[in-house]
Amino acid sequence: xxxxxxxxxxxxxxxxxxxxxxxxxxxxxxxxxxxxxxxxxxxxxxxxxxxxxxxxxxxxxxxxxxxxxxxxxxxxxxxxxxxxxxxxxxxxxxxxxxxxxxxxxxxxxxxxxxxxxxxxxxxxxxxxxxxxxxxxxxxxxxxxxxxxxxxxxxxxxxxxxxxxxxxxxxxxxxxxxxxxxxxxxxxxxxxxxxxxxxxxxxxxxxxxxxxxxxxxxxxxxxxxxxxxxxxxxxxxxxxxxxxxxxxxxxxxxxxxxxxxxxxxxxxxxxxxxxxx
Length: 276
Prior knowledge:
This protein has helices at about 10-25, 40-75, 80-105, 125-155, 160-185, 185-190, 195-200, 205-215, 225-230, 235-255, 260-265. By secondary structure, the chain is mainly α. The chain has a single domain (about 5-20, about 40-265), classed as Ferritin, core subunit, four-helix bundle (Ferritin, Up-down Bundle), CATH 1.20.1260.10. Helix 2 (about 40-75) runs antiparallel to helix 3. Residues about 1-5 have low confidence and may be disordered.
């Protein structure tokens, strides 16, 4: 995993992405059939839980991206940037529908998420926007991409492969957006050293929160087997390895390329319950 050096010109990427979204047409390919009888009841139960939880999480993510739009507008982000933010909310709502379909096919019933409100502070709105984007896109979505790639590479069930691919392409773009926006706003950060420093000082806590929620340290592998892999369920034994490699080989270099002391922030993150 390399640093996100291709996003040196954030404006160009965001303009291209906004244009792609304006011209995109919904894919018409229908999912393959699913043959549950091929798999053990235990593996199906684990997949049902995964996709049920995932459906609610994707719905919540859609609400978060939608709630981020006022921050972008108030911060003076251009229309292309606002269009991409709103488009990411649309992506996540579509993902919620895909995940809910899979969950229901497996016998699950996804729950709606709680209402989402992004907290505000007295800090400059531009700084608040960038902090949310760093955590939501640069950090969280980059880890999500790595996990989806790993699951997709191991999945053998055509129905599950189709569902995973429906999520993956968008999640890649969501991660890229974060680094592209940082590149685009680098002149603003240079002109506002206090905001740049405050953003950098927030990184250890952001890394700690990311580790707490997504590291996968201690995940039980009891009963996990070949049927689980075939169904695209992530191997609990690999979750932590994927997380730490992604942070250290993609997230940290990407943030460092944007001008932040990300390696030092990663080392300085507060100790938590999920440390290696």
